[in-house]
Specification:
Layout (H helix, E strand, L loop, with lengths): L3 E5 L6 H9 L17 E6 L3 H10 L3 E3 L2 E6 L14 H9 L3 E7 L15 H26 L1 H5 L3 H18 L14 H6 L8 E6 L10 H13 L2 E5 L1 H7 L4 H10 L6 H12 L2 E7 L3 E8 L4 H8 L1 H5 L1 E7 L1 H6 L3 H6 L4 E3 L10 E6 L2
Parallel strand pairs: 1-4, 1-5, 3-9, 5-6, 6-7
Antiparallel strand pairs: 2-4, 8-9, 10-11, 10-12
Length: 365
């Protein structure tokens, strides 16, 4: 299981440039005019994880298969998108299909790149997008609640739950707050997710800065960080142009280039890590001579459900999981050494998988 992150923002903030860099393709045409991205570009990327290379080296794995993450480059929103301005309705529908939203904000001055509003103000840009998503949610909620009236009269329990959750979302939206600020009880989480409200999705603000500001940011990105802190949201500092250059280089050259720019890692690594934290995801590994592979699960996943990520039959016929913590696997130089040192454990259905676990599942067919 990976996740889909929608890249959104006003036109000409660097979304498509960032998408091209992240997916190492030129699938999204980066051009200096609004709506150059009409259909959402979808790109899958490997999730960088040095632990996987280490495990493969110890096991002598012939193949390395990283976890995957999907980016969806969604065309630029404009003021009035909720009413169909620009290509608004289509774009809003594309956002509904994502797990999280990355708001790309222009945090750079450049007279050669036109801003749709004629100014550089990333906080105002974020407010424009948030407002359009909130307005779209309100319109959707009003229609849905109207359609539930007949079922509510018949005391339909599912309809009552939906209406209760929609009413809670409507209340916060009318108060000028996004739906993600609603406190949802555990028993309502599944129904809440099914509502697919745009503003219920986790948000990450991506500050797109010039090359010279990539390491420490600038006044624009500082303003975004302040806004994000007030909302309890995360931020990532990225120079889309640097990422684009790095994407064309070999690994060693890219590392040297990053060092020259005063950066410890590529923006892709930071963005994925922030996305993982945003959605409470973690990684476990399966390792052997044939392949070393990373699998993505949600934090708190139990062993049978983790097995089910590989194949449904693994979950249905789950017997136990042979488990070695990553550090123990490395310290003991592999599975054999871990067994000898007593570091391999047999875990049952009640085991909660930990990030970095090396697992081997036993199951009935």
């Amino acid at each position: 299981m990976g996740f889909r992150m929608g890249i959104v923002g006003l036109p000409n903030v660097g979304k498509s440039t960032l998408f091209n860099a992240l997916t190492r393709t030129a699938a999204a045409q980066a051009a200096n005019f609004p709506f150059c991205t009409i259909e959402p570009n979808v790109g899958e990327v490997n999730v960088p994880d040095r632990r996987l290379d280490t495990l493969a080296g110890i096991a002598g794995s012939k193949q390395i298969i990283p976890a995957r993450m999907t980016f969806v480059d969604i065309a630029g929103l404009v003021k009035g998108a909720s009413q169909g301005e620009g290509l608004g309705n289509q774009f809003l529908a594309n956002i509904r299909e994502t797990d999280a939203i990355a708001h790309v904000l222009r945090c750079f001055e450049d007279g050669d790149i036109t801003h749709v509003e004629g100014r550089v103000d990333p906080v105002a840009d974020a407010e424009v997008i948030e407002t359009e998503l909130m307005l779209a949610d309100l319109e959707s909620i009003e229609k849905r609640r109207a359609n539930l009236v007949r079922k509510l009269k018949g005391n339909d329990k599912e309809a009552q739950q939906q209406d209760r959750l929609l009413a809670a979302a409507q209340a916060v939206l009318e108060d000028g707050k996004p739906a993600r600020t609603v406190e949802v009880d555990a028993e309502d989480l599944k129904a809440w997710k099914m509502l697919q409200l745009l503003t219920s999705k986790p948000v990450l603000f991506v500050c797109n800065v010039n090359e010279e500001d990539a390491a420490k940011g600038n006044a624009f990105s500082a303003a975004v960080e302040k806004m994000a802190a007030e909302q309890g949201a995360g931020t990532v500092l990225i120079s889309a142009r640097i990422e684009e250059e790095i994407s064309q280089l070999e690994a060693e050259e890219a590392e040297m280039f990053l060092g020259e720019m005063g950066l410890d890692e590529a923006g892709l690594d930071r963005l994925i890590r922030a996305g993982y934290e945003l959605l409470h995801l973690e990684t476990y590994f399966t390792v052997g001579p044939k392949e070393a592979r990373a699998w993505t699960i949600r934090q708190g996943t139990m062993a049978p459900q983790a097995a089910g990520v590989i194949h449904g039959d693994f979950e249905k016929g789950f017997i136990r999981a042979e488990t070695i913590a990553y550090d123990d696997y490395v310290t003991c130089n592999g599975e054999g050494g871990a067994k000898e040192a007593g570091k391999m454990r047999a875990e049952g259905k009640a085991y909660q998988v930990k990030d970095g676990d090396v697992l081997h599942f036993l199951f009935n067919t």
